[in-house]
Every structure is written in C-alpha cells, then in structure tokens.
Amino acid sequence: MTLKKRLQFVGVCFILFSLGLLYLQSNHELALTQRAMTEVSEGIDKGDKAFPISLKKLSGENIELAEYEDQNIFLFFFTTWCEICSEQWNHLQAAKNEGFMDGTKIIAINLTDEERNVDDVIQYAANVPIDDVTILLDEDGVVQNTYQVAVVPTRLLINKGGIIEDRAYGLMTFNQIKESSFFQ
C-alpha cells in the first residue's frame, strides 16, 4: 500500500471515528432529553407533581396527601372568614349530590395561622355541609408557603398520578365542576 493510500485510509478512519463520536454524543443528549421529558418535577403549577403534604386533621390524626394517590383530589385552601370559601362548600355538595365528585377526594386545608384560634375552625367545620371531606390544619403556614397560597380560596385539581391538572383562585361553581373533564 502506498503512502497516499495509507493517509487516505487513516483520514477515512479518523472521519468515521469522529462521526461515531458525534453520533454517540447525540444519542446521549437525546436520551437525557427524553428522560427529562418523562420525569415531572414537584411544584405548584399545572403539570407539576404536587408537593407532599403532611398535616393534622381536626381530630389530631396526621394525614399525608400520598394516602389518597389512588383518587383524584380537589385540594381547597380556605379560611373561616372567607365568604367565597363558604360558598364553595355548597357547590361541592351540589356536585357531589349529582355524582360529579365520585372518585374525587375533597381535602380542605385551613390556613390556621390566618385564624383567631383553632376553636373557630372546629366550630366552622361542624357546619360544613359535606359529610365526606377531610379538613386539615396548616397551623404554622408551611403548606401555605410551599404552595404559595396568597389568596383564598385557592384550589388545585390533582389527578391519580399526583399531577396538578389545574390551579385557580376563587369559587369553582357547580357548572364549572359539571363541565370539567377532571370530574368525569
């Protein structure tokens, strides 16, 4: 083999080797991109995985959000002095009576550090018109800060996979519940 042919052979090998490295690198980047697209980070917005919550019920029993991961969750932040929050219960009860809440767990988180005292919350809870609701106390505001709740009511619709499908402020009416694909 002549020197010219050897140099051509080495040149072709070098080019093929370089192209192979580029190809391997591009596959690696593609794998990273695909993995990043399938992993969902925890957060507070639509599409995020809901942050873990561990709070006490009115009875003192500790509850974790993960206990309800096999159900859709209507997560509702409220205070006793919020008039719109009080209206929300009636809309939820109407939707429940019509079967729209079947398969959905209603979890209401009281922003207890925004209240005068826990006794007000206990008295308020006794008059909530829904029998199957879990009321939790955020006594030190940790969950309120984690979920950046600045307005009541704030509600999150969390699916069975723990992903936040919707986050909104204000009243969710019976008609909005009825029309929402989340409750179907």
Automatic annotation (TrEMBL):
Residues 44-173 form the Thioredoxin domain. Keywords: Disulfide bond, Membrane, Transmembrane, Transmembrane helix. The chain crosses the membrane at residues 7-24. The keyword Electron transport does not apply. InterPro entries: AhpC/TSA, Thioredoxin-like_sf, Thioredoxin_domain, Thioredoxin_ResA/DsbE_sf. GO terms for molecular function: antioxidant activity; oxidoreductase activity. This is Alkyl hydroperoxide reductase/ Thiol specific antioxidant/ Mal allergen. It comes from Evansella cellulosilytica (strain ATCC 21833 / DSM 2522 / FERM P-1141 / JCM 9156 / N-4). The lineage of its organism: Bacteria, Bacillati, Bacillota, Bacilli, Bacillales.
